[in-house]
Amino acid sequence: VQLQASGGGLVQAGSSLRLSCAVSGDPFSTYTLGWFRQAPGKEREFVATVSRAGGSISYGDSVKGRFTISRDNAKNTVSLQMNSLKPEDTAVYYCNAKSGGNYWGQGTQVTVSS
Predict the structure, then answer these.
(1) What does the pLDDT look like over 52-103, one tens digit per residue?
(2) Which residues contact 5 (CB under 8 A, 6 or more apart)?
(3) Distance between CA atoms of residues 13 and 22, nearest Å
(4) 20 to 30 A Cα–Cα from 8, which one of 14, 32, 87, 88?
(5) Is 12 exposed, middle or buried, given 0-12, 13-18 or 19+ CB atoms closer than 10 A?
(6) Beta strands in the chain, from DSSP E residues, in sequence order
(7) Nearest-CA neighbor of 8 among 75, 106, 102, 100?
(8) Which pLDDT score, from 0 to 100, does residue 30 have?
């Protein structure tokens, strides 16, 4: 299983950014997909997850109402739309796929300036 994240960058507070992750390997529909993030000196933090069929979604408390996770089972991608970004959202963002095993992408840096 391979996960390739993209879309990170440097933005100002209040801006929006969209992350995408391409997943290859086992049938895409078998994966529960998610995003996590890790800021310098901090533990990896749960951001959002979406179930295999997309019917169940959950978010970390710090991003509720601002971030939206979605999956496209036809394109084998999972995305994270991030609105109203704050400096505290600065982190390396990792996409995750679970299906028996637990798989991680390489991470993409998001930096939000104040």
Answers:
(1) 988 899 999 999 999 999 999 889 999 999 999 999 999 999 999 998 889 9
(2) 19, 20, 21, 93, 94, 95, 105, 106, 107, 108
(3) 27
(4) 32
(5) exposed
(6) 2-6, 9-12, 17-24, 32-38, 45-50, 57-59, 67-72, 77-82, 91-99, 101-104, 108-113
(7) 106
(8) 85
Whether residue 25 is predicted with pLDDT greater than 90 in this model: the reply is: no
> Residue 66 gets which letter from DSSP?
T
| Residue pointed to by tokens 């992750």 | 21
Cα distances (angstroms) measured from residue 4 to each of 24, 33, 72, 88: 9, 13, 15, 24
Q: C-alpha angle 58/75/4, rounded to 5°?
A: 75
